Amino acid sequence: MFRKILIANRGEIACRIIRSAQKMGIATVAVYSEADRNALHVEMADEKVAIGPAPAAESYLKLDKIIEACRQTGAEAVHPGYGFLSENANFAKALAEAGIVFIGPPIGAIEAMGDKITSKKVAKDAGVSVVPGHMGLIESGDEAVRISAEIGLPVMLKASAGGGGKGMRVAWNEQEVREGFDLARREAKSSFGDERIFIEKFVEQPRHIEIQVLADKHGNVIHLGERECSIQRRNQKVIEEAPSSFLDPETRAAMGAQACALAAAVGYETAGTVEFIVDRDRNFYFLEMNTRLQVEHPVTELVTGLDLVELMIRIADGEKLPLAQKDVVLKGWAIEARLYAEDPFRGFLPSTGRLRRYRPPEDAAREGTIIRNDTGVVEGSEITLFYDPMIAKLCTYAEGEGMAAREKAIDVMSDALDAFTITGIRNNIAFLSGLMAHPRFRRGDLSTAFIAEEYGKNFEGAEASDEDLRILAAIATCVQLIERVRLDDLSGRLRPHPGTIRPDWVVLIDGEAVDITITSGMPSIPFDVEMIVDGIEHRVMTAWKPGDLLWHGIVDDKEVFAQIERRGAALRVERRGVARMTQLIRPSVGEIYRHMPEKAVSELDNRLACPMPGIVVSLPVEEGQKVEAGETLATVEAMKMENVLRAERNVVIKKICAAPGDVVAFDQVLIEFE
């Protein structure tokens, strides 16, 4: 077995690999850029080597620096994780020439499957069903339009060397084909150094379901079942689960057999994933093969009990697979939610900054459930614009079978998200909570268009039931009464408190008055009070103390978590993706609030402000130019994704305040209008 391995990656996946290596008694080497000098993976590793400036192209993508780090430290093997150099055949070749083991597939498999055009030809020859499309390279927007017309709209434009949703665009008409071709090609060149684009038919209302395969150096190939990855935004996976509620045993077996056939056809070794799109009739088509460890591998680990990273290391060392296909048993249900540094309330735009608070729920296993949080950050870490915006992968598992196990895994995930405290940057926890609560998601009615269909471009908060609002009101009452009691207990008061708390109150929830009546108990710590909230009786118990950001307690015999934030006289309470500003007041004051008019919403000003920090790619307008609603005003790159900013109404350009190549901050003015 290897004595020392180097992890050619950063963040969450580097930490994940280090944990398995440590369990196996293998020393680890971390590499890091200037931006990651104090990163968690650097702290966890036994040795660390600096490899360059913050941009990935000058550090994590420099294969010569990775190999030199191996020489310096004596690392015998390299695990690439995912992204960066993980599917780079030249990197694998360079390692082989240097006598260093690549913990990944053979070079030929990387070359065949890493090129999406070649991979589809290989898949077709191996008897794998493929999506109709044009497998040749596309040289221009005009050619893309012609080919799209032949295939039939809508189409998907994809980078040949792409992955992770980068370099991909869906086009529904000729204009979108032209725009999508240029955007996809630029993204592909920026992310992968390869601007080749191909086109295939876009299957409407598809599910994205993938098969995990394992192969060793002795010709053994098995699959570990499927992962449902249909909940996506801009082709980036958001929620993954195993197994899929959509597949029947026959379809699962057929997909698994084809995935194994493809792996065998290219002489595959190590862990890999064969991705399919599946239509409403369970017809499935090969999408691509990822010759690496997938981001969402934890859900497969949870339902199989296997450590995929450990298996990859053992396979690279020449060991045989420890199990055959007949030994693979899927138990229970697992769900993974990707926590991103983005603002779902502002079109999911990226967010950067420092994690002032980072308090994930504790990894735990109890009562047939598991909570697992894979992360590469700690409190105080900085999220920069140089790398992927993922903060963590929160996973939950529930024992059992079928939809009952899935329902339980969703409930555990909902509680875990409620218990996850992050401050300092915007994040998508509220959105993930909203997904968990969505009736369509809970019944398993999924497609890759789910987010676009249900939420559009902006998330405006989860739907709040009457019960949700009553629980928020009860929590707000509990918190603010405890604060009042704590203040009343202070010594030196000019007018001592009489020792009783009035029973009748009003809670303002976003300006709406809700009547509260305390029927029994005292608001002390621990808190155990029965109250009537808007006519419904509830019992609330908690050990919450003033200053805690996380509220944890029992409401009507049910465990409840909520995020608490004091904002002046008001209190922000968030649970299940529903956030409300609350304030506890006397009934006489509440009566006045019921008659107060609402403030009118102001109109937009005459400026285009950058909605996220990034780099200006283009400003295709001129001063004095008339621009119609929907036309492109600017393109800004953030975290390797290009974001097109369009005019929301007809405008005339008064002044351009930035230039291509400028690094711009959040809310920095790019254009002024007349």
UniProtKB/TrEMBL annotation:
DNA-binding keyword on record: no
UniProt cross-references to CDD domains, sorted A to Z: biotinyl_domain (cd06850)
Enzyme Commission number, as recorded: 6.4.1.3
Pfam hit, one: PCC_BT
Keyword Transmembrane: no
ATP-grasp domain span: 120-317
Organism: Rhodopseudomonas julia
Top-rank EC class of the record's enzyme: ligase
Metabolic or biological pathway, per its Swiss-Prot or TrEMBL entry: Metabolic intermediate metabolism; propanoyl-CoA degradation; succinyl-CoA from propanoyl-CoA: step 1/3
Keywords, alphabetical: ATP-binding, Biotin, Ligase, Lipid degradation, Lipid metabolism, Magnesium, Manganese, Metal-binding, Nucleotide-binding
Gene Ontology terms, MF aspect: propionyl-CoA carboxylase activity
Biotin carboxylation domain: residues covered: 1-456
Lipoyl-binding domain span: 599-674
Cofactors demanded by this protein: biotin
Protein name (database record): propionyl-CoA carboxylase
Reaction(s) the record says it catalyses: propanoyl-CoA + hydrogencarbonate + ATP = (S)-methylmalonyl-CoA + ADP + phosphate + H(+)
